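Example record for the data management plan.
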Amino acid sequence: MNVRRRLISGTAVAAATALGLGTLSACSTDSAAAANTGRFDVVASFYPMAFLAEQIGGDHVHVTSLTQPGQEPHDLEISAKQTAALQESDAVLYLRNLQPSVDDAVAQSEVKTKIDAASLTTLEKHGNEVGGHAAAHDDHENEEPAGLDPHIWLDPVRYSQVAEGVGKAFEKADPDHAADYRTNTAALVKKLGALDTEFEDGLARTKTKVFVTTHAAFGYLAERYGLTEEAISGLDPESEPSAARVKELEKMAEADGVTTVFYETLVSDKTAKTIASDANLKTDVLDPIEGITEKSRGKDYFSVQQANLKALQTALGTK
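Corresponding structural encoding:
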């Protein structure tokens, strides 16, 4: 599927009011308690990985998330305490190239079961290497270098592929409970399939296919459902556009029938509101689900994704 995807960015000054994106895992405890619990001890790098481990592992696993509530996953620095706990765990589930400190810790650890979610599905390039506006402005200072987009969990189909791989890894590492892992994985894959259908049906007939976000996290979701993400910043959300970019965005919004600028629950809405005001647009939340807190529009991955779908439907309009 050929989908336009343009990245709007500029001189990119640091967003001083930006807050970290945290994670909250239902079974998580302090990382020091990650091992020797009498269950299959899994260390997950951040919420989307922890959620998979919990859903697939059920009562047989003890899951600990390295990224705590209030932390921004991309910038996580693992403590010595967490590193020690990682060494004693039964398995680690992470997403390579999202959190460098996690990659380093995993590479140096002697954990027998290392599950890299990035190896369980296909990754693509989303960012300033794509044509359109992006090609004309590839000298941005605070963006991640052109590379593979890690936000695979926002696409239910790719997330399902990862779930299947995690399930097989759990079966191999903890064969005594393989049957339950297999059953739980199948149930999760079925739910993700239903979610995919909800998105496909819910976004099939919209007035516009273009949406604007402050964080370029929704490239896979946009591609899956025939949409175009207009990202103000890069794959890392901590930047603001220049005045020139705001004007550029205003022209694009008018041409493409854009109604809304989306921002994240745990990041300041200052940039979104500034741009929306200049372009006479609305603002709303589109959650990249890098963490669940009391501010999230839902208590888990599925409920937040359904809230995202409703927000997109409202912004894009229906025919």
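Summary line stored alongside the record: The chain is about 40% helix and 10% strand.
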